[in-house]
Amino acid sequence: MIAMTESFIQKTLQDASDFAKETGMPKLVSIVKDVHKMSPQTFLMNGKRVYNGDRFLWSNPDRSYTFAGVGVSHIFTTDNADGRFQDIEREWKRFNEQTVVHSISYPYGTGPLIVGGFSFDPNKQSTNLWNKFPSAKFVIPAFLYTVVNDQAYFTANVMVHPHKEVHDYIKEVEEAEKMLLNFTTIPEKSSSIMVNRHEIEPDKWKKTIQKATSAIKRDEFEKVVLARELRVTFDQELQLEQITDRLMAEQPTSYVFAIEQGENCFLGASPERLVKKVKDKVYSTCLAGSIRRGKDEEEDGVLGKELLTDEKNLIEHDVVVHMIKEAMNEYCEWIESPSHPALYKTKHIQHLYTPVEGEMKKDHTLLSLVEHLHPTPALGGYPKRTSVEFIRDVERLDRGWYAAPIGWMDVEGNGEFIVGIRSGLVKKNEASLFAGCGIVADSDPESEYEETNIKFNPMLSALGGATHDTH
Length: 471
Ligand SMILES: C=C(O[C@H]1C=CC=C(C(=O)O)[C@@H]1O)C(=O)O
Ligand SMILES: [Mg+2]
Hints:
Blueprint: H1 6-23, E1 27-35, H2 40-46, H3 48-51, E2 55-59, E3 65-70, E4 74-78, H4 84-98, E5 113-118, E6 136-140, E7 143-148, E8 151-160, H5 166-180, E9 194-199, H6 202-217, E10 223-234, H7 240-250, E11 256-261, E12 264-268, E13 273-278, E14 281-292, H8 297-309, H9 311-331, E15 332-336, E16 342-345, E17 349-360, H10 366-373, E18 381-382, H11 384-394, E19 405-410, E20 415-419, E21 423-427, E22 430-439, H12 445-463
Helix pairs in contact: 1-5, 2-7, 6-12, 7-12
Pathway: Quinol/quinone metabolism; 1,4-dihydroxy-2-naphthoate biosynthesis; 1,4-dihydroxy-2-naphthoate from chorismate: step 1/7; Quinol/quinone metabolism; menaquinone biosynthesis
EC number: 5.4.4.2
Pfam family, one: Chorismate_bind
């Protein structure tokens, strides 16, 4: 149990209120309580009436850490293409120093934290599709329901302003708590029916693969990741509670995330960590190179073995390992990584997987490492600059936040970022799904096309649409 008694809460709010009245500046008081366990989707559902448009979800692959957030206590955003990581870093640091009340110690993953992300390429001409997702945006959710290793917490992030009284804040938090933690709410379980499926220019996409392999053969770059879009329409509005509920159940080896921005929601089940920081330790993942799952254990094993020795896939993977190790090495005192990839299996696909960990040098931060790594050659290419320019020129797609860093961070600078793949942007009864493939000299457009079809499956399955049969 955590010691945050009513009288302690009252006193902390009173001190913050006195400060606010004296200086005219607000203070953020984060109230954390132990609560009963419930489904994070129930929390999101409960928050829908008041906080529709501002809801968030995050869950680790082993579900050892999950949070659902609703409402917004503070926003950090920038359109500064070149300095977006530093802008967010600076504003969060300043807010932390000036506004957050630090007399409370929070269990990991609770209390004041920011959640959000970046766009893939701030220099690509953006379209209307992603107009709710700027090149960087993070928020402190007003209320969080967090489960850490089976213990559930409720966090209320209260911005204490000069013009309001402490008892009003207490009343508001009590009311919100009652409404949001009502575990008797049953999330709707209606299943939506897909009424239209539209692949965006598949033939032109295959031609861009040829363009890429020719450029690679001319030594313009070593690898590039090219993505395409599948637009699907359903008979009814898509619900983020239902989709994330399915993703969490169906994709036990993937992160599940959702970021709602008004009527739009970007969500998915990504298997790929970009970087996680716990104190001075950092953990990254090289995930690239793919093959389908087998129809039974035996075939699955054969396919896995094939992937582990397939030259084209090993090149795809090695380019990522090389870059991530180099980048981590620069920012770390030491790094450690196995010399051969292992298999990473998700429900629909298996990948080559190499973890990299290290101890971060004192003068670096989680966000500086996110910037240094993004995009890795699993999402962009190698070398970074030429491959991103190639994507900007030839890819017929506004990636928005797809394949970009999505994550959360606490007041100590700990947190985790993943890359937003196996994902889609949902709006009302429509969803744009995205999938890309690492292209190297020997890539064949038809098999890469098939690979993207497999990569659409996690989202298609969660949305209730027919998945692509790969057997
Ligand atoms: C870019 C995607 O996947 C990346 C991650 C793992 C394997 C990949 C591959 O084998 O091509 C991709 O690099 C995507 O799913 O949209
Ligand atoms: Mg591939």
